[in-house]
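in:
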């Protein structure tokens, strides 16, 4: 049994959208796109327009992407070879949107949905999907990581530790399944209760015993991350959606 990825992705975008929403010169792309960040730079924002900036600061930046960015600016900074303009982006089963993809076909691929689609201006949402879902990546790790260490593949227990306390997420097996619904006032919650990062948890192939655990944490209700079933399953972050202030 696998988490329904596309419906969960759309759910993540919708959940992020419920929260309130706020240029440099370089080209090229690092040759090694498989190594994961071991440590986030102390002054991540200082490297905003560096081509090897893979630091996410929710509400402020996703590497070179800012709330005022345009597709044209990203092409200038990263090079045409790293920017797939006017790309078709899958947002839910049978539904697509036109947006921009960076580093397509690599573990560092991200997709941008624009607020002004015709002008390809002002990111509405930046979507990070698991590398294992990209043909040819062979499960290689992405370099993208938040300024506090959260990334695709982080476990529920790791996210709980980053938050400093248990949080709420929806049960599995439906459109919003696995989506974090409330940080419960933890460190991952922004000022004033706003958040600009939405994450969706999922899981891969399960044993018969794990299937029984999933049944206990499925459905359209909310569960605390400290729930015994959630702790046993310990799902991982499968999708991250970032929005801007």
């Amino acid at each position: 049994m696998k988490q329904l990825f596309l419906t969960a992705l759309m759910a993540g975008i919708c959940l992020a959208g419920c929260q309130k929403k706020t240029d440099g010169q370089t080209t090229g792309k690092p040759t090694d796109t498989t190594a994961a960040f071991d440590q986030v730079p102390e002054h991540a924002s200082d490297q905003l327009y560096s081509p090897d900036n893979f630091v996410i600061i929710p509400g402020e930046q996703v590497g070179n992407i800012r709330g005022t960015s345009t597709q044209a600016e990203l092409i200038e900074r990263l090079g045409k070879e790293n920017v797939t303009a006017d790309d078709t982006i899958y947002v839910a089963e049978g539904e697509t949107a036109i947006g921009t993809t960076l580093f397509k076909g690599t573990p560092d691929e991200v997709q941008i949905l624009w607020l002004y689609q015709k002008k390809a201006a002002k990111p509405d949402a930046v979507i990070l999907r698991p590398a294992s879902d990209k043909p040819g990546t062979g499960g290689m790790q992405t370099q993208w990581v938040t300024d506090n260490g959260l990334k695709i593949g982080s476990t529920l227990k790791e996210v709980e530790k980053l938050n400093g306390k248990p949080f709420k997420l929806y049960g599995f097996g439906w459109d919003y399944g696995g989506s974090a619904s409330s940080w419960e006032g933890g460190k991952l919650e922004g000022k004033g209760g706003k958040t600009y990062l939405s994450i969706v948890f999922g899981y891969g192939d399960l044993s018969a015993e794990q299937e029984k655990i999933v049944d206990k944490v499925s459905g359209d209700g909310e569960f605390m991350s400290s729930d015994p079933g959630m702790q046993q399953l310990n799902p991982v972050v499968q999708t991250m959606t970032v929005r801007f202030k």
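note: The radius of gyration is 17 Å.
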